[in-house]
Amino acid sequence: MQKRAFITGVSGQDGSYLAELLLSKGYEVHGLLRRSSSPQHSTWRLEGILQDRFKLRYGDVTDSPSLLRHLEEVQPDEVYHLAAQSDVGVSFRVAEHTANVTGLGTLRMLEALRAVCPGAKFYQASSSEMFGVSSPPQNENTPFHPRSPYACAKAYAHHTTVNYREAYGMFTTSGILFNHESPRRGENFVTRKITRAVAAIQAGLQEYLYLGNLDARRDWGFAGDYAEAMWMMLQSSEPEDFVIGTGEAHSVRDFCELAFTEAGLDWQNYVRHDPAHDRPSDVDYLVADPSKAQQKLGWKPQMSFGELVAEMVRSDRERLRRFLENESHKK
Ligand code: NAP
Ligand code: G4F
User: Fold this and answer.
1) Which of 105, 129, 155, 194 is disulfide-compatible with 61, CB 3.0–4.6 A?
2) Is the distance from the beta carbon of residue 14 to the nearest atom of ligand 1 less than 6 Å?
3) 178 and 244 Cβ atoms separated by less than 8 Å
4) Which residue's alpha carbon is nearest to atom 28 within ligand 2?
């Protein structure tokens, strides 16, 4: 029988890869979309996959009645809760909003599920940011030490997900995902900010790239591989939490060097430090120990760090080329 999935955060990077994956597996997919003054901007990642088996429903994770209504109508087999205010830097500026969306949003989803579809399997998008300054490599037993309003909200959501499993016997799981990127990554995250700048600098449209902490090390993988891991977690017979990452760390400086080299440029001529991009407290070193996911799920990342950087640079150069071509046709 055809399975039904409900995805919050469907218009985001991960939501788009996950929707694509589930549609390719024959699912009927329902995605929660929040109201925007410019709908075409919020669905740009979904353009290629809109079809009969994919339905978008207006709602918001700060609005319990909309969650209850949709879940009651859809009666999903699987719920993937990806919606969040997901920008760590911005969370210092909108801390209360972040707690409401990223923290309480999960509680609202779980309460709605418990009320109208308690048998549905639930995936919570937890984050390696929760580990903060805990020593690397981080695994499922590493203590949390959150360093931002975002990470505090995610830790709350994570514990709430575990509690609903223990208290009510619901199938609730958390994927503790390390950073994952793609050509669909939001433009404010450091990887995409770098690859867009490489394209603009190469085209002579930008002089410098201003960044904050170049020493931070992250475990960067490809978002498409991580969507596969989310799905695998909900196919398990028992609900469990898993760390998902590549097991390899690189600094922001390394990312810059590789991305500029990809375009035949020396990063040192273009990257400048701007303290405005430093965070009040940052996370220095995140690298996953994904052995549990490898052993129990058989999950392994497919794309290497070098391939990821090259693909993001290629895609941003191509996007800029198309944009400039369109502009010249308008003249
Ligand atoms: P993203 O691109 O920022 O997408 C976030 C999604 O949440 C968007 O669809 C956004 O809608 C939606 N959203 C925000 N506020 C909402 C609200 N009040 N009600 C309903 N929807 C709302 O994030 P992502 O990179 O795909 O990440 C997906 C999830 O995984 C997030 O929870 C993130 O915190 C978590 N995570 C990400 C990573 C990573 O490296 N990417 C790692 C660990 C965990 P709009 O499109 O309208 O803004
Ligand atoms: O790309 P970032 O903003 O990602 P961050 O903070 O690691 O968070 C991302 O990954 C988390 C998983 O670990 C997710 F949960 C979260 O939702 C998000 O997807 O920053 C990476 C590093 C940081 O140390 C930051 O200080 O890059 C450093 N950085 C240096 N200059 C910068 C910049 N980050 C941004 N965004 N912009 C800069 O100019």
Assistant:
1) 105
2) yes
3) yes
4) 213
Question: Is 129 one of the annotated active-site residues of the chain?
Answer: yes
CA 190 to mean position of chain CA atoms = 13
User: Among residues 127, 128, 182, 315, which one is catalytic?
Assistant: 127
* Residue 150 annotated among the catalytic residues of the structure: yes
Q: pTM score > 0.90 for this model?
A: yes
- C-alpha 10 to ligand 1 mean position (Å): 8
Using most ligand atoms within 8 A of CB, pick from 17, 58, 82 the residue to mutate for ligand 1. 82
d(CA 203, CA 197): 10
> Where do the domains of the chain lie, and which CATH numbers do they carry?
4-181+220-244 (3.40.50.720), 190-218+250-288+306-330 (3.90.25.10)
The answer, yes or no, to whether any atom of ligand 1 lies below 6 A from the CB of 60, is: yes
CA count, 13 A, side-chain hemisphere, 113: 32
Q: How far apart are the first and last CA of the chain?
A: 54
Closest ligand to residue 14's CA: 1
CA–CA separation, 6 and 22 (whole Å): 10
Query: pLDDT digits over 55-76, tens only?
Result: 999 999 999 999 999 999 999 9
- Is 270 part of the annotated catalytic residue set? no
Catalytic residue among 20, 28, 129, 228: 129
Please tell me the number of the ligand nearest to residue 70's CA.
1
How many angstroms separate the CA atoms of 233 and 299, rounded?
10
Per-residue confidence band for 40, with pLDDT thresholds at 50, 70 and 90:
confident
Mind listing the pLDDT tens digit for each residue in 172-181? Answer: 999 999 999 9
pLDDT digits (tens, 9 = 90+) for 216-242: 999 999 999 999 999 999 999 999 999
Asked whether the beta carbons of 91 and 153 are under 8 A apart, the reply is yes
